[in-house]
Specification:
Layout lengths: L11 E6 L5 E5 L5 E2 L10 H12 L4 H8 L3 H11 L11 H8 L2 H8 L2
Helix pairs in contact: 1-2, 1-3, 2-3
The protein binds zinc ion.
Length: about 110
């Protein structure tokens, strides 16, 4: 392993895993932590959680995919992966936030296309 910050190649130790399950490392030269190979570099945990939230709101996978700019098959994979464990506290619903902004009609209009 090579530290991305100080470029040291020695004293790189394993330092647990990220929420997504990727191996994380820590440089004992400069103390920085890094993840050399993120498991799913395209999408972070937040967008997957948003997809799940929208799914729980009853939106279709295609609509979720369109809102989050993710392939709907990818969304389906995420939701299948989450099927066994639903987090206790979901973040504020995107639909609720959209309703406050007055964009809910726009979102629902999308569905009817
Ligand atoms: Zn370092």
């Amino acid at each position: 392993m090579i530290c991305p910050k100080c470029s040291a190649q020695t004293r790189q130790i394993k330092d647990g895993r990220t929420a997504a399950g990727s191996q994380r490392f820590r440089c004992k030269q400069c103390g920085c932590r890094y993840t050399p190979m993120p498991k799913d570099p395209g999408y972070d945990e937040e967008i997957r959680l948003q997809a799940l939230t929208l799914h729980l709101e009853g939106l279709s996978l295609r609509l979720i995919g369109r809102l989050l700019l993710v392939n709907h098959q990818t969304v389906a994979n995420w939701i299948n992966g989450y099927a066994n464990y639903l987090p206790a506290d979901l973040p504020p619903s995107i639909l609720e936030m959209a309703a406050l902004d007055g964009d809910l009609a726009d979102i629902l209009a999308l569905e009817e296309e």
